[in-house]
Amino acid sequence: MSDKQQQVMEHVSEYFKEHLAEYTVLEVRRKSRHPEDSHLWMVSAEKEDGTYAVWTAWNEAIQSLNHGHYGIKSLEGCGKLMEEYTDDRSYFAVYRCSQNARFQISIFDSEGQARQFCESHGWEWEDENEFLWSLDYREV
After folding, report:
1. Which of 10, 38, 102, 135 is in the most buried spot, having the most CB atoms within 10 Å?
2. Euclidean distance between the first and final Cα of the chain, in Å?
3. Are 85 and 99 in contact (CB under 8 A)?
């Protein structure tokens, strides 16, 4: 478990102790690989009666829980539901670069879109100060 995932698990567990004490948190999982969704997570938990639940929207930034799915009969059912709501696509960020400096300027759904953006700008980007940057893209 990553440090970030461990931190989210601690916050979710604290939330459950206060608001959903009848549940035991089992797992937290990133909802999306998109860099701008890094605050969104999913949560699975077991209820005291032996049923399970999945919340497909834990917002780590504001510590809120939404979109609960209740009465799930098995742990495998939780996993399948979480997989259904996970956005595990790859994303590609375009950067403006100069020597050791690199700044993200956009994110695309595919490598082809990122490459097309760079090519359409001649692999260069002129900023508001008329400084000319090289363009590059990478999977994020």
Report:
1. 135
2. 19
3. no
